[in-house]
Specification:
alpha/beta, Rossmann fold, globular
């Protein structure tokens, strides 16, 4: 373990312990709108670029292995996650020889949060592709979790020759919520909802959905990571970008294009997951039909031409955090099964 990772682990442990009592009162640290004040486990770099007439920057970690195997893994975080939440996965992949790139997407975490931006999965894929090009990376394995799974699918569809392998970790977007009856709400309504975000609301949702009812002190720093931005001076901008991103997720399904994915694809699914965007807005009869991950995962496996499926029967939306040992064993085995390239 590097010194930076040791310090990060110590800080996370201290954070979990120190905030144990404060968390009950929904108190804790305040971070800046670009997550200033929250440490990452590896050196954070910035990719500056122009997009939609604006000067933006993407924060990312670029972790080089001690013994390279010649492959690069790009980790795409979810809606309520950041590149830092891939901490353990980064270490496992680097130890196995992978160069690891873990960016924060525009609108998230330590990256720019523009006041006006046409968010789309295509745009985020282009931004990610530009980052990789700037690093001289031509082909990579894309590993996407949650919303990052939707982004990984879009990236693979746009850049099939540059996507060596696709790994989808409890991706959302395995169903079209709008088509199933989830009502739409305006960006203004999403914004009003986001302004009400607290550590307690985050914790309650994550325990039920991400960890299948379990809770451990190790999960608390990730609650405070998000809640801290909503306590800080940039709360309004954080909430606004989050609202724009929720609208993007709801309105831009990828499920209808699974059949076009031609690269080897690995689905890693915690079966206890029940995530569905806007589920709480839907009437009870619609809500009952949403977020059935075992069924959705098997349907995705059938729809994607070269897909393998690994299920974790007792895990939720974040298997890489709930049971890192089981998850990383399956991940590394699946990555190693990639057929040799001609």
């Amino acid at each position: 373990m590097t010194l930076t990772r040791k310090l990060f682990a110590l800080a996370a442990a201290c954070c979990a312990a120190a905030l144990c009592h404060a968390a009950r009162a929904d108190e804790g640290p305040a971070y800046g709108p670009e997550l200033q004040g929250f440490g990452y486990p590896y050196t954070v770099r910035d990719f500056a670029f122009a997009s939609q007439g604006q000067s933006l920057h993407m924060a990312y970690m670029d972790v080089q292995p001690a013994k390279p195997n010649g492959r690069t893994a790009v980790l795409l975080h979810g809606k309520n996650f950041c590149a830092a939440t891939w901490d353990t996965t980064i270490g496992e992949l680097a130890a196995a020889g992978y160069r690891v790139i873990a960016p924060d997407q525009i609108g998230f975490c330590k990256s720019s949060k523009p006041a006006a931006y046409q968010f789309s999965f295509q745009q985020l894929a282009r931004n990610t592709h530009a980052l990789l090009a700037s690093l001289g990376i031509g082909r990579a394995t894309l590993i996407g979790h949650s919303t990052g799974g939707m982004l990984a699918v879009r990236y693979a569809l746009m850049y099939p020759q540059e996507t060596e392998q696709l790994v989808l970790v409890n991706p959302i977007g395995l169903e079209d919520w709008k088509a199933k009856g989830v009502p739409s709400i305006s960006v203004d309504d999403w914004y009003a909802r986001e302004l009400k975000t607290t550590a307690e609301s985050i914790r309650r949702y994550e325990q039920a959905t991400y960890y299948a009812g379990q809770w451990r002190p190790a999960f608390e720093p990730w609650v405070q990571m998000l809640a801290g931005m909503y306590r800080g001076p940039g709360k309004a901008q954080v909430a606004w970008d989050s609202a724009l991103l929720y609208d993007m997720i709801y309105t831009q399904p990828v499920v209808y294009e699974f059949g076009q994915l031609q690269m080897p694809t690995l689905l890693l699914i915690g079966d206890k997951d029940t995530t569905a965007i806007g589920k709480d807005l839907a009437p009870p009869e619609v809500r009952a039909r949403l977020g059935h991950y075992p069924e959705l995962a098997r349907a995705a496996q059938q729809a994607i031409p070269h897909a393998a499926l690994v299920e974790f029967p007792d895990l939720g939306h974040a298997p890489q955090m709930q049971d890192p040992g089981a998850f990383h064993a399956a991940l590394l085995k699946g990555l190693a099964a990639l057929p040799a390239q001609p």
